[in-house]
Amino acid sequence: MENLINTIQLLAKPYHSPEHAAEVIKAASSAKFVLLGEASHGTSEYYRDRAALSKRLVTEHGFRLIAVEGDWPSCYTLNRYVKGYDDAGTNVREALRDFGRWPSWMWANREIIEFAEWLRQYNASKPEEEKVGFYGIDLYSLWESMDEIITYLEAKPGAESDLIAAKQAFECFEPHDRDGQRYGVSASLYGEGCTDEIVELLRKLQHKWKTQGPHVDREDALSLEMNALAVIGAEAYYRTMIQHDAESWNVRDRHMVEALEKLMDYYGDGSRAVVWEHNTHIGDARYTDMAEDGMVNVGQLLREKYGVDDVYAIGYGTYEGTVIAGRSWGSREQVMKVPPAIPNSWEELLHRAGPEDKLILFDASTAILDEITLGHRAIGVVYHPERERGNYVPSVMSKRYDAFIYFDRTHGLSPISNEIVYS
Fold first, then answer.
1. Of 148, 43, 52, 54, which is closest to residue 105 (Cα–Cα)?
2. Which residue from 101, 35, 110 is spatially nearest to 73, judged by alpha carbons?
3. Residue 384 — pLDDT band, cuts 50, 70, 90?
4. HSE toward the beta carbon, residue 247, CA cutoff 13 A
5. Taking the alpha carbons of 76, 284, 375, 346 in that order, is the dihedral positive or negative?
6. What are the boundaries of the signal sequence (predicted)?
7. 3-state SS class at 127
8. Which tens digits make up the pLDDT trace of 262-317?
9. What does pTM read for this prediction?
10. What is the pLDDT of residues 191-239, one digit of tens each?
11. Beta strands 374-377 and 403-410: pairing type?
12. Does the CA dihedral 12-17-19-25 come out positive or negative?
């Protein structure tokens, strides 16, 4: 390992701040998709760094679309706030009101407040066609998206036939008491799914934004389609997850790519996106043990479709610190200790190479790393520090990412919640 540590010392550069990250910004700026990862969903440094890099990509290189690992309905409320729409609430905390479902801290936090306020200020002086949007591309909003579709169609003059179709499509979900897993059991084991109904609904609703006039109406029509897409994605996810863990993962990541592509279509020719998701989604799955289980992810799918020149993936990691997470799904969020990385993991070797924050750009000069597989820490919304060894994904780092940003010590982010406890 000493030779590898020496190699890391030669390749890594001190990372002082995103304001001084000219090399990585230059390398990423020509891509169509810039993917910004995170090694947890609860670390302040990852959120702040992604925000700072995103600001530079927006102001210096014309990126106009921020897509995140969040639900469409709640992120769309925040999107309307940052774009300055009249019905979006008078302050950012009001605009975050829809991030109520666990894990709410992922987006209802002070780090996002700061970024949202910057986006709103940036957009204030821009014409509608130049404003930067903030959107969720995940699929967990099955019930919320159905509610949004009904609300939209009820308020839309002349939408009576679409409203009837939507209500008929959603009737088959009613016996499941707004419980995705309960629906999944019924659909997977007993064949009582709603696939045909919602596919037909999506067919009816898609591309309606293309026929709208004023910009706000176009984006609301886009939201209608994106909510329908979320319903069809969530239905497939819950139906699949009961029996096929790997395939349900694939359903989710394929959905996120499709949602991202619909946003790119909406923004038009030449549009480019910054994507915020966990490392496990943006770091090419072909260079991890995920591939052995037949799993794909967003980073892989985008590289395969658009080519490596149009996709730039930046991973993140830390040696130790604290993180916001829960002990079980739905439990109260806690500030947990992130223990020192396990010996001979990627993060531990970066620490031994020197305790300063680091940046590594992977290119032809780092080919020596291309045959080396190392454990790379991944912390989810549910975390058990005492079971640390199970949190590492074997990865060829120089193939999985285009660049990697390492923070030697990190801190839990700042949720907008009075229920935080410490452990």
1. 43
2. 101
3. very high
4. 9
5. negative
6. none
7. coil
8. 999 999 999 999 999 999 999 999 999 999 999 999 999 999 999 999 999 999 99
9. 0.93
10. 556 677 777 777 777 766 677 767 668 898 899 999 999 998 988 888 8
11. unpaired
12. positive
Return the exposure string of 121-131: e unless at least 16 CB atoms fall within 10 Å of the residue's CB, then b: ebbeeeeeeeb
Enumerate residues 6+ apart whose C-beta is below 8 A from 152.
159, 220, 223, 224, 227
Q: What is the DSSP-derived secondary structure letter of residue 126?
A: S
Structure tokens at 50: 């992604």
| Cα–Cα dist 10/404, whole Å | 15
Residues in the chain: 423
Is residue 96 pLDDT above 60, yes or no?
A: yes
C-alpha distances out from residue 401 to 69, 170, 300, 369, Å: 18, 41, 10, 12
**Rg of the Cα atoms in the chain:** 21
pLDDT in tens, 36-78: 999 999 999 999 999 999 999 999 999 999 999 999 999 999 9
Q: Contacts by 337-341 with C-beta closer than 8 Å and gap 24+?
A: 337/385, 337/423, 338/40, 338/379, 338/385, 338/410, 339/385, 339/388, 341/377
214: its two tokens: 């004023």
